[in-house]
Amino acid sequence: MPSLYVVATPLGNLRDLSPRAHDTLAAVDVVAAEDTRHSQRLLDAFGIRAKRLLAVHQHNEQQAAGHIIECLAQGQHVALITDAGTPAISDPGARLVARVREAGYTVSPVPGACAAVAALSVAGIIEGGFRFIGFLPAKTQSRRAALMALADARDALVFYEAPHRVEACVADMAEVFGGGREILIARELTKRYEEVAVMPLIEAGAWFAADANRSRGEFVLVVRGAEVSDGVDAGALRILGLLLDELSLKTAVRLAAEITGASRKGLYAHALKQQQ
Question: Angle at the Cα of 69 (from 27 to 88), degrees rounded to 5?
Answer without folding.
Answer: 75
